[in-house]
Amino acid sequence: MPRIARVEITQVDLAPKTPRSDAIQAFTCQETPIVRVVTQDGAAGTGYTYTIGTGGSSVVALLRDHLAPRLIGAEADMVEAIWQDLFWATHALAIGPVTSLALAAIDTALWDLRGKRLGEPLYRLAGGAKSRIPVYDTESGWLHVEAARLVDDVRAAVARGFRGVKVKVGKPSAREDIARLEAVRAAIGPDVTLMTDANQGFTVAEAIRRAGLFEAAGLELAWFEEPLPAEDVEGHVRLSRATTIPVAVGESLYHPAKFRDYLARGACAIVQVDVARVGGITPWLKVAHMAEAFNVAVCPHYLMELHLPLVCAVPNSAWLEHIPQLEDITEGGITILDGHALAPEAPGNGIAWDEAAIARLQRFTPIVVT
């Protein structure tokens, strides 16, 4: 079996293509730590992770000082064993975002390496359930966008072929949220799916109240995303029992056990596991299959380039979220046909990195661990 000889670490900062805001924050920069794992025979795999503007240097330091050195000499094909070793080596820091994000950078690189060595695309290697997935658009629905422009933007998204659109909620009054959602529903018609996202902005009482008002308005929402702080499982139980709108959670959960708590309590109806925030492809697949056992759909958060092969790997995936972010450092991008994203057939994770662009935009000379 090939053994790991070298690990390279760098970071690229990417500005969003459009201003992004939600109920609790603005997304001003994607810090993108990138890891390249190279084996003794010269084979290489590339992985990455991200932040929305803070913490990237902490992720890089954890990779450089603690995780990457443990990879040297390890058998690259032993992906699960490596993930477990790294997780337990940093267990005093878990479960939390910095550790999970760092684990993801390595784990996604190892899966990319495995796929390239076997000549298999990730979606087949990880399960091969389907070859395409419906796509919904989020870029048109940020909270700061005024109603008139919001309507124009969602119409444009539908004209481009998107089968669904997501609109942020969390305005000071429920009337404002409902007015925006009603305008969007009128613009897109009854056949386009409409999602909504509160980004953890409500109390339990307010989430229950607004869900009731959304239902009364006849908006036919596909889901109510992150209505409450992610640590409030009991609040999500209460909300789920009080509304017929499916409750979606997952982007702020950092280990499969957290999803177990939600699923076992009936606290969510949609799982939005994020491959970077949960610690990589290895735990992402565990969460997806756990959700399948509960007959719950997976609709992952962000990172569309990496989530595309993953949602095509599992049978219970329903949607891919469209938020472009990697165009400046990749070539080609994803292919969308008739409102569906097509699983990439290239060996590995399916991301064609633009090495020249990465070299030009990286914040520091790559750190090399041997």
Architecture per CATH nomenclature, i.e. the level-2 architecture of the largest domain: Alpha-Beta Barrel
Number of helices: 12
Largest beta-sheet details: 10 strands, mixed
Q: Mean pLDDT, rounded to whole units?
A: 96
CATH homologous superfamily classification of the largest domain = Enolase-like C-terminal domain
- Beta percentage is 15-25%
The CATH top-level class label of the largest domain:
Alpha Beta
Large-scale geometry: globular
Helicity, in percent?
Answer: 25-40%
How far is the first residue's CA from the last residue's CA?
Answer: 18 Å
Radius of gyration from the CA trace? 20 Å
pLDDT < 50 stretches: none
- Per DSSP E runs of 2 or more residues, the count of β-strands stands at 16
Number of domains: 2
Category from helices, strands and their pairing: alpha/beta
Order of helices and strands: EEEEEHHHHEHEHEHEHEHEHEHEEEHE
What is CATH's topology name of the largest domain? TIM Barrel
Protein name: Mandelate racemase/muconate lactonizing enzyme family protein
GO molecular function: hydro-lyase activity; magnesium ion binding
Cofactor: Mg(2+)
Keywords: Magnesium, Metal-binding
What does this protein structure show overall?
It is a single chain. A hairpin with a 4-residue loop joins strand 2 and strand 3. It is globular and about 60 Å long. With 370 residues, it is an alpha/beta fold. The chain has helices at residues 56-71, 79-89, 97-118, 122-125, 147-159, 174-188, 204-216, 233-242, 256-265, 281-293, 304-313, 355-361; strands at residues 4-14, 20-21, 26-27, 30-39, 44-48, 132-137, 164-168, 193-197, 221-225, 247-249, 270-271, 297-298, 320-322, 335-337, 340-342, 367-369. The protein folds into two domains: 4-119 and 353-369, Enolase-like, N-terminal domain (Enolase-like, domain 1, 2-Layer Sandwich), CATH 3.30.390.10; 123-342, TIM Barrel (Alpha-Beta Barrel), CATH 3.20.20.120. 48% of the residues are buried. Strands 6, 7, 8, 9, 10, 11, 12, 13, 14 and 15 form a ten-stranded mixed beta sheet that branches. A four-stranded antiparallel beta sheet has the order 5-4-1-16. The model has no long low-confidence stretch (mean pLDDT 96).
